[in-house]
Amino acid sequence: MKKFLMSQRRLIYIISSIFAPLLIVDVLLINLMISTQKNNNLNLMEKQANSVQYTITSTVDSALAVADSIYMNKYIYEFLSAGYREPMDYIDAYQSMLKSTLMGTNGKSGRLKIFLYAANESLISGGQIHKLSEAKEQKWYKYLQESGLDRILYFEYDDSKVITVDDRRRILLLQKLNFYKPNEVEKVLAVEIDYGSFIRTLHEMNYTTDVYICLGDKIVLSNGRYSSVGSNYFDFDKSLKRKTGFEQVYNIVGQNLKIKVIKPTITRSTIIAENFPLIFIFLTLNVVVPVFLLGLVYNNRLREQHMMVARQNAELLALRNQINPHFLFNSLESIRMHSVIKNETNTAEMVEKLAYLQRQYVDWGNDLISIKSEMEFVQNYLDLQKYRFGDRLSFSLQVDEDCEKFLIPKLTIVTFVENACIHGIEEKSSPGWIFVRIFKKNNNINLEIEDTGNGMSKEEKEEILMQLREASIDLLKNQKHIGCMNASLRLKMYTKGHVEFDIDSETGVGTLLQIIIPCQS
């Protein structure tokens, strides 16, 4: 039964540590594949919408250029406003106007047809010139008047034609001619854009999906099955709305047109072709990752066992040095109170700082402490050393505000400061300085402990630097000066080996110790 439970636990462990992460990776890859396909489709539909918008704009711009030239032409205004007694007078004036305005070349060429209307009964209707009375019952004229605009684009289905070879659908650019003497004679320009030619252009662009240009709910242009020039405009129904993948709205000559692009049809072969690298990774992960993770889990178990053994050894080392220090605190407090009674202020302060330092050593609790709290401990330690060395010791503590809350192993900075005092200040007869600088740089916490002591030789520096970088439980057992190695070992464990040490020292000048801790640790 016990073996069965152990095998069950092992199975649950393998599933949770190997197959569960693999399943998560698979789901993420599938979602990434779907998201990539959606983004590709969206980009494709957006490009098609922009292409259609450019085609419409360039075609309408041609009509606008013609309309602008007529709108500003004084000869045309004078011709449409003049009174003609005889037909020959009208014909002569018409011929003269054609020569002066290039109406003869622009009247009916290519995709554009020009029609001029004026409230002048002496005009002879025909060709490009018409009396306005003939247009007042037309849909396009009523639409222009109701819009309240001087210029507008109009999509018309002319159901009045019984037998005709022309398109029943029309696109008209309507313009009121009111630049010169607008109240004299009402005049209107209608530039007809060849609808059939427009549709052929859309078909020739070979879009991968259907595109619909709508005015309101009416499909006015399309490269799909709703583009017949002989049928009335169709409604953009609910089935098309469900298939729409992209919509773009833009204003052109008083009309808000909506370009609607239908979602492209996606086949399995298309998905495989477009996402082959992801599919290859997907298959590779399902084969390789289980083997890799099994090895990783095994190595992690070994690493955990080694860490457990190392922790037990560290605890044994701690037990060897452990004592019950409460009697010491009581004794220190008695000495401090005795000094206070005798007005020996300096002695009382020294005893109080000593008790604070000793309590920090004993009250271990949590191995992590904020830099701000650690620096308070450093301040007390250096104040205490100041009593000892007097003017021989000066110190400066500089900590950037954004580093104060960062956690480090307890008693690390003060250990290196203590080492600087012993080997930097104590061994030097002349006055010396200790500098502690803590700042953030390149997403790292930088600790610098510098002294102006006697420094050390290159060989001594290399030996100490090796001890800091290679610190371990075994080395700790065999060293005389274990303080700095203990601190460096705990820093290595805390940062998972990512802490960096460096020493710069010169004989007779001093020593600078640099410790770099990654912020993400």
Task: Give a brief outline of the structure.
The protein is α+β, with helices and mostly antiparallel strands. Helices cover about 50% and strands about 20% of the residues. The strands form four sheets. Strands 1, 2, 3, 4, 5 and 6 form a six-stranded mixed β-sheet that branches. Strands 9-8-7-11-10 form a five-stranded antiparallel β-sheet.
Describe it.
With 521 residues, the chain is of the alpha+beta class. Strands 1, 2, 3, 4, 5 and 6 form a six-stranded mixed beta sheet that branches. The chain has a five-stranded antiparallel beta sheet with strand order 9-8-7-11-10. The protein has helices spanning 2-71, 74-81, 87-101, 103-106, 139-147, 195-204, 238-243, 268-274, 276-320, 326-341, 345-362, 371-389, 413-425, 458-469, 473-477, 483-494, and strands at residues 108-109, 112-118, 129-131, 151-157, 169-176, 187-193, 211-215, 218-222, 234-235, 244-252, 255-262, 368-370, 393-399, 407-409, 432-441, 444-451, 500-506, 510-518. Among the domains are: 64-262, no CATH class; 364-518, Heat Shock Protein 90 (2-Layer Sandwich). Helix 1 crosses helix 9 (276-320). Residues 318-331 have low confidence and may be disordered.
